[in-house]
TrEMBL record:
Transmembrane listed as a keyword: yes
Membrane topology qualifier: Multi-pass membrane protein
Region of interest (Disordered), residue spans: 1-27
Ranges annotated as spanning the membrane: 170-191, 197-216, 228-245
Name of protein: VIT family protein
Organism the protein comes from: Nocardioides luti
Matching InterPro entries: Ccc1_fam
Amino acid sequence: MTTDATDAPDVAQPVGPHEDEPHDSGLNNRLNWLRASVLGANDGIVSTAGLVVGVAGATTDRTAILVAGIAGLAAGALSMGAGEYVSVSTQRDSEHALLAKERRELAEDPEDELAELADIYVQKGLSEELALQVARQLTEHDALGAHAEAELGIDPDDLTNPWSAAWASMLSFTVGALLPLLTIVLVVAGWRVPVTVVAVVGALALTGWASARFGYGPAKKAVLRNMAGGLFAMLVTFLIGQLVGTQI
């Protein structure tokens, strides 16, 4: 008796990692770097655009606009870099402290730590027998890594890097800030503000899309939210500039 190939039961093929989902090591630092880059560029665009548009609302003097824009760019870039460094350094210090505590507990009371790890897997749905087996095998392979990931959500081999976040934030802020600064300085007086607004809105649409892409969120909402925030900032600063400019 022969069996036709078309009647053979389907054999499940091994399923690899989804192409659109990250599974590799070093993910934490890369996401941290990307987050700082996107947010830095976005802040550079919005803050510098608001500044130069506000000054343009008060005066048509190209030099005054340029000086204000350069000062805002430098101050903003340094502030972003320092802020990211302090923030991520604090996070890294906390991670080191938690890992040190976990090492001490593993050395002083390994059996209690094993039971705690097994209980975590029981809470996730495994039977007590299987949870204990999994906990033992993971502990034998890498005790600190297993406990840190399950209990603390930390990968000891992929701690946050404050310097990468600081540099990414500072450089991306500078790149983002250059767009509205160069646009409003190079365009003739009568078209400075409208051309800058269009350029800024386009750039914010791009950073909004990028933030959604890296965060696996809905792109449309992120883009519209970004554009609306930038337009509102420029409108407010332009009106303030016009008001102040007419009073001086």
